[in-house]
Design goal:
Layout (H helix, E strand, L loop, with lengths): L1 H82 L6 E5 L1 H12 L8 E6 L16 H9 L6 E6 L5 E5 L8 E5 L5 H8 L4 E6 L3 E7 L4 E7 L10 H31 L11 E6 L1 H7 L9 E3 L8 H10 L1 E5 L1
Parallel strand pairs: 6-9, 9-10
Antiparallel strand pairs: 1-11, 2-3, 2-5, 3-4, 4-11, 6-7, 7-8
């Protein structure tokens, strides 16, 4: 009986020893597990911080790329003007408010000698279409002729040289004309302020394009964002691989913008198609042309060498109503 008791007692001690050892291992593994969990949490936090930083850097790069595109466009225009010895006294970007105020001011000008000239060029007009003779200074006409606009321009001039300025209006000039009298003819510009068009706006930039609809009392605008790599400056195979990847990114961005345009204008999302009077493109015009390649033959497209900032709605309105004033 004593031997049996010793046998069970020995077994109990062995089991207890095994249990203690297993518990020790469990405690050790739990401690290691806790350490690993802390390391993993720190790694996850670093990953989140890295992703946040990556997004911030990408936004900075996109913003910088927009500024570079704007400066490249402006530099191209300045080079073109410089090559022709063009020097304007001043050029000023117009918004809807400033355009309206200038039209009202010009409409208030009077001349007893009836020597005020209002000359409207539509998109097809040429300098050779008019014989200005000695009525208007030759240098003024030359400067006016150098202003590039695919939707028309207007020259206001008086023979006493008090007024000599040109305006590229926000919308198309319908017909060419030359009016002389005791006041400046601003009626075509006033009509633009009251015509209440419905405008589709595309403010194009690689990776971040604003698409919007601007009406009389309603503005709908969205940003189409995709990942587009910033420009690469290294040479060799690395640059070529990078450029191929960037080209693919840009093609994908163009496709997404076209899908958004189809959604906004084609009614594929169940919304009735807006009655669009025109499309106005700004920003990177080469990119905008690619985005609008399938639409330019259906709706009139106005290109404006203008780059603006703000929220999507502000950008859409600014591009829609952007004009320019030149002092000759």
């Amino acid at each position: 009986m004593v031997q049996l008791f010793d046998l069970f007692g020995k077994k109990d001690k062995e089991h207890k020893s095994q249990i203690d050892e297993l518990q020790r291992q469990i405690d050790q593994l739990s401690a290691e597990n806790q350490k690993l969990k802390i390391k993993l949490d720190k790694k996850d936090e670093k990953t989140r911080d890295a992703l946040t930083r990556k997004q911030e850097v990408e936004e900075i790069l996109n913003h910088t790329q927009k500024q570079i595109t704007t400066l490249e466009n402006e530099l191209s225009a300045l080079k073109e003007e410089a090559s022709k010895n063009i020097t304007f006294s001043g050029t000023y970007l117009l918004n809807k408010k400033s355009f309206e105020e200038i039209v009202l001011e010009l409409g208030s000008v009077r001349s007893q000698s009836k020597n005020l000239h209002s000359i409207y060029f539509n998109m097809n007009a040429r300098r050779s279409d008019f014989d200005f003779g000695d009525f208007i200074d030759e240098n003024c006409i030359y400067m006016f002729d150098q202003i590039k606009s695919n939707h028309g321009k207007v020259l206001f001039y008086d023979e006493n040289h008090c007024i000599s300025l040109a305006i590229v209006p926000p919308f198309r000039i319908k017909r060419s004309d030359w009016i002389t009298g005791d006041l400046l003819d601003t009626d075509p510009l006033k009509a633009m302020l009251t015509c209440e068009p419905v405008i589709c706006v595309v403010h194009a930039h690689a990776g971040s394009t604003v698409v919007g609809i601007v009406g009389k009392d309603d503005v709908r605008a969205e940003i189409v964002r995709t990942g587009v790599q910033a420009k690469h400056t290294k040479g060799g195979w690395s640059q070529r691989r990078f450029e191929r990847g960037r080209d693919q990114d840009i093609e994908y961005h163009i496709k997404k913008v076209q899908e958004k345009l189809q959604s906004m204008l084609g009614g594929v999302d169940g919304v009735d198609r807006p009655n669009i009077d025109m499309i106005i493109a700004g920003g990177d015009l080469r990119l905008a042309r690619a985005m609008l390649a399938d639409m330019s033959d259906k709706v009139p497209v106005i290109e404006k060498r203008v780059d603006v900032e703000g929220n999507p709605g502000d950008i859409a309105v600014k591009v829609a109503w952007a004009g320019r004033l030149y002092r000759l």
